[in-house]
User: Fold this.
Amino acid sequence: LSLSVVVLLDTTTVLGELDWKTYPVNGWDAITEMDEQNRPIHTFQVCHVMELNQNNWLRSGWIQRQAAQRVYVELRFTLRDCNSIPWVSGTCKETFNLFYLQTDEPLTAGVRFRPIDYAKVDTIAADESFTQTDLGDRVLRLNTEVREVGPLTQKGFYLAFQDVGACIALVSVKVFYKRCPSTLRNLAVFPDTVPHMDSSSLVEVRGACVENAEERDTPKLYCGADGDWLVPLGRCVCSIGHEEMDGYCRGKRLFLLFFVRGCVCVLHKHCTLVCCTNSILKFTKAADTEGNKWIAMGRK
Assistant:
């Protein structure tokens, strides 16, 4: 999963009951089966295609929006081809509707369900519908549709699905939003940033120099709607006495080796051979392959 995607709900990963509500109670059916890893698979089905004037609702639990200003809803579902069902030409439908309701807290138990309170997102149709032949051949024609929901201004929201006479199996629902994840660029740290509701505009973010670094030009990045950082500007540089290493500023290390009572030769694995001579104090400098400064000091 990309770091730029924050998942708020994924019904395929919920281990317990979803506790979604149906209105009326005999409309949608909740079916839970176990996969080969003994994990629950939650699906919701409805197929009242023989009866007129269907108005069956399925409502999710309350979903906290966190930092999102808008979310994406990914639906995976199957839908029956009405032409493959006899005697339903006037009652069978091949679409369903997606709605949402914003609230600052979960609705209390017993609150009457009022469809008028919900805002419509879109009518959902299938790219591929299945037939009786597909059932016999055990062919699964699974559709995936993604819709954007927003702007979101309250602390959470509900999703609702309205059936008006289709034969549907809702296999999974995933709700997520996109962000630009925290990153390190040009010795500056940029925090997690959520894009604007307006997908055409970029969010300007100023970076903070890492420890032991200072601004050369103000470091900036721009957060795009898809969670990508764009247009890097400016940079930080390491302060005096420090050097860049792995994106950070490290102090230049100084090693003092003292040798007393005679001439001592030093051989470091990254350092040239250094010797002291006679009774004269001698300083010899050498650099290892990492740029560390070594000083060998000797006295007889």
Q: What stands out?
A: The longest strand covers residues 167-178. The chain has three domains: 5-178, 183-251, 254-298. Residues 254-298 form one domain.
